[in-house]
Amino acid sequence: MRRQFNNIVSVIHSAIRFGLVKIFGGGDFQVGLIERFSPNVVFEKNRGAKVFLGKKVRAHSGCKIKARNGSFLRIGDNVKINYNCMIICRKEIVIGEGTEFGPSVFLYDHDHDYRAGLKEGKFQEGSITIRKDCWIGANTVILRGTKLGDHCVVAAGSVLHGEYPDHMMIYQKRETLMRPYEKENGRM
Hints:
It is a single chain. This protein has one helix spanning about 1-25; strands spanning about 30, 35, 40-45, 50-55, 60, 65, 70-75, 80, 85-90, 90-95, 100, 105-110, 110, 125, 130, 135, 140, 145-150, 155, 160, 165, 170. By secondary structure, it is mainly beta. The protein has one domain (about 1-170): UDP N-Acetylglucosamine Acyltransferase, domain 1, CATH 2.160.10. The strands form 4 sheets. The protein has a 7-stranded parallel β-sheet with strand order 1-4-7-10-15-18-21, with no helix packed on it. The chain has a 7-stranded parallel β-sheet with strand order 2-5-8-11-16-19-22. The longest helix has 23 residues, at about 1-25.
């Protein structure tokens, strides 16, 4: 019963929030009829940004979705964004319908341009495209210039950059290394 109540509160809160964004946010903003964003989701759309949310997009507590000036963000129908995910868009991020994110997935379509100096606030930008029906495992980081094909599965803890074709399972092998350490002066 509590879960149903929370879902209803989230839908009503989302309708009010996105209604205000449409009225005062200026510019291009389209949203599906029923969205379910937790009241604890940070959603920011700068005036020059274009944001399109499909039908039945869900975002759980702790998520941050930010579309900066001049950026383009499209999230398709039936996309599920789990707890504590972060989508920060400075150029272009497109997420296909039916895609699901595990908790704490981060999408950044930009990197700091460290050559110019971090204090300069300059960025290197590149698009991110995630096609339909993908599953992105927990704690994955997706960087600028990444393109995932349809029906891809990304293993938890992955860091992605590059192009991946349809129907791929993407994982990164890691090995855990151990070695005994030496006691110094008989103490640990």
